[in-house]
Amino acid sequence: MCFLKNVKTDSISNILRNYDLCSYCINRLMPKNFIKKDSLQIRKKQFKKAKKELIKKCFICKNIFEKLNPVLNNIYEKTSNYDFKTFQIGITLQPSFLDRDDFIRSKLKIHGTENIKFGILTELSKKISQRTCSVREINEPDLFIEVILKDESCTIRSKPVFVYGRYNKTVRNLPQKKNICKKCSGIGCHNCGFNGVLNEISVESKISNFLKSKFECSTIKINWIGGEDQYSLVLGNGRPFFAKLNNPKKRNYVLRKKSDQRGIYLSELKKLKHQPKGFIPFKSEVDITVISKSPINLSKLKKLKILEKNQVQFVSKGKMISKKIYHINYKKVGNNTLNLNLLLDGGIPIKSLIETNDVTPNISHLLENICRCKKFDFKRILI
Questions:
Q1: Are 144 and 20 within one domain?
Q2: Which domain holds residue 253?
Q3: Co-location of 106 and 31 in the same domain
Q4: Tell me, what DSSP letter sits at residue 50?
Q5: Residues 291 and 229 grouped into a single domain
Q6: Which of 23, 55, 136, 157 could pair with 125 as two cysteines, CB 3.0-4.6 Å apart?
Q7: Residue 269 host element (H or E)
Q8: Distances (CA, A) of 51 to 9, 216, 243
Q9: Does residue 365 contact residue 354 with C-beta atoms inside 8 Å?
Q10: Which CATH number fits the domain that encloses residue 224?
């Protein structure tokens, strides 16, 4: 609550006699129940004893309120390419402004009124709202504007846009993720042709390029629901993914549900208010072609049924992980070739399940044969 302690007109007049204050600062410092008229009129009438002329340079703000147009023009120019209905603004102000403001407050024993920083924010916000037909909002605004008043500069940061979708991969030899250059850690160097990545084409790059073209964002972070080998296909309903679009300029784009990206087919595309946190459990149906070193023994082949509705274990990041295989079908298609169809928990390393002792039990162990995973394709992913 705004209040003025034991302040008489004489004391205010004395302050004004010794310190020039502009109309903005008088209105800002004096409670509304104390001053109801225009501050310039108050200076002429109510504070006659000061006998001072109109302000030349304000002691507190140095007339900064009258010099906000360059800052506003900079803000208007930089925000003109952004879609936004709400904004929040922050300013960096030299400490000397606040020191002078506190000094006058102390002299007048004023408490509870807005300080100069809040006053500048209010003035800037009012004019930005009028010019851009937007509203200042503290919680999760579309746009955040940071102003440095010393050099009249500003930076713009927009709230991320979150997108959910699925992708089908219909071509082989296409990696899921970008292969970041280890020599420059993605910054760009001669080794990677200054791209930061060693493989320019991937599922990630295709999805990122598509979303960047629509939302004009700076960077994209994709959270994958599982992964696949670069030679694997992703069929059926596709693999789900969540994308975080950082600093998008276009946030009102109407996203179509489907898009063909030449080898990558996107579906179920939609914008989300927030991205789910933590691990999302999922199941995968996988077709696997297995090649064995020795001819496959039919009697031992039946041992694979042990895997159905049972757990397999493996170590990941130093922890023992247990995952379940829900269903298994197998078919011998040659002396040394086997086709498998599995429905299993997401996160089980497919090649390790076939080839090594890293996963127990595993196919090679059950068949008592050295097996190799020739290829594996995903028929569907369930979440």
A1: yes
A2: 161-272
A3: yes
A4: G
A5: no
A6: 136
A7: strand 264-272
A8: 13, 58, 65
A9: no
A10: 3.30.70.2510
**Residue 277 forms part of a structural domain:** no
Q: In degrees rounded to 5, what are phi and psi of residue 128? A: -65, -45
Q: Return the SS3 of 181.
A: coil
Distance between terminal CA atoms of the chain?
A: 53
Return the structure tokens found at 287. Answer: 């077709």
Q: For CA atoms 367, 372, 374, 375, give the dihedral sign.
A: positive
Distance (Å, whole) CA 194 – CA 23: 55
The answer to whether the beta carbons of residues 266 and 209 sit under 8 Å apart is: no
- Strands (DSSP E) contained in 127-203 are 135-136, 143-148, 153-158, 161-169
Report yes or no on 296 lying in a domain.
yes
Q: What values do phi and psi take at 80, rounded to 5?
A: -65, -25
Tell whether 64 is covered by a domain.
yes
Catalytic sites, residue numbers: 229
Cα(366)–Cα(141) distance, integer angstroms: 58
Would residue 292 count as lying in a domain? yes
Number of Cβ atoms within 10 Å of the Cβ of 141: 20
Q: How many domains does the chain have?
A: 3
The single-letter DSSP state of residue 319 is: E
212 and 298 housed in the same domain: no
Q: Are 241 and 165 in contact (CB under 8 A)?
A: yes
Q: What is the pLDDT along the chain (383 residues), one digit of tens a residue?
A: 444 444 555 566 677 777 888 888 888 887 555 544 444 454 444 444 444 444 478 999 999 998 899 999 999 999 999 999 999 999 999 999 999 999 988 887 777 778 999 999 999 999 999 999 999 999 999 999 999 998 889 999 999 999 999 999 999 999 999 887 777 777 777 776 766 777 678 999 999 999 999 999 999 999 999 999 999 999 999 999 999 999 999 999 999 999 999 999 999 999 999 988 888 999 999 999 999 999 999 889 999 999 999 999 999 888 999 999 999 999 999 999 999 999 999 999 999 999 988 899 999 999 999 999 999 999 999 99
Whether residue 359 sits in one domain with residue 333? yes
Q: Which residue, 250, 272, 294, sits at the end of a domain?
A: 272
HEC string of 233-248 equals: CEEEEEEEEEEEEECC
Taking the C-alpha atoms of residue 191 and residue 186, their distance in angstroms, rounded to an integer, is 11
